[in-house]
Amino acid sequence: MVAQISRFVAKYFVQFKLFETSVQTLRQSAIAAFPHTTMRQHATGPIDIDNIRYTPFLGLRTLLVRCEADNQGNLYKPMILFRNVNYNPADNIFEFDATDNGQHYQIRRLSRANTDVALRCECGDFFWRFNYYDHLDRSLYGRVRRPYIALYNPGSANPTESPGICKHLMKMAEELENLGLLE
């Protein structure tokens, strides 16, 4: 009986996610899913992050951060929605001006390891490998696509069916850490 309950909990734990997913968790998941890649986490150097835009949603306690990622002439628009944002901080403050109305805001710095996120990028790596599995993990911002199944070598796009992030989102997170939003 206990074994049956354990299997039931294990089966549905991922489906009904009882924990939050952070940028760091998704980064580690992508690295673990593709340990032998020479790209992704090793290819963030040439990417330039520009035009960072902040859109606060005070009533929802969220902050949407968008930017442009210039990857050697190819432009992508990654975005991260941070959840449970503290807009009334007493300490550890990050300040920004909202893009939509120019209003000045102060928030408590966000934890790279613990702040729950929803994110997306329009690049092929994210679209084909992580979009569907981030949806299952409840960390996808926006529309989900069907799981991609390659005609040649099926299952090769994401063999571990892991959620994760692309190099543009990795670089965006690094830039947000450099600016002081993430710690």
Characterize the structure shown.
The chain is an alpha+beta fold. The protein has helices spanning 2-15, 23-33, 124-136, 167-179, and strands at residues 47-57, 62-71, 74-76, 79-82, 93-97, 104-108, 117-120. Strands 1, 2, 3, 4 and 7 form a five-stranded antiparallel beta sheet that branches. A two-stranded antiparallel sheet has the order 5-6.
Brief synopsis:
The protein has four helices and seven strands, in the order ααβββββββαα.
Order of helices and strands: HHEEEEEEEHH
Shape: globular
> How many strand elements?
7
Q: How big is the Rg?
A: 18 Å
The helix/strand class is alpha+beta
Strand content: 15-25%
Write the layout of secondary structure elements.
Blueprint: H1 2-15, H2 23-33, E1 47-57, E2 62-71, E3 74-76, E4 79-82, E5 93-97, E6 104-108, E7 117-120, H3 124-136, H4 167-179
Antiparallel strand pairs: 1-2, 2-3, 2-4, 4-7, 5-6
Properties at a glance:
two-stranded antiparallel ribbon; 183 residues; alpha+beta; 4 helices; five-stranded antiparallel beta sheet; disordered N terminus
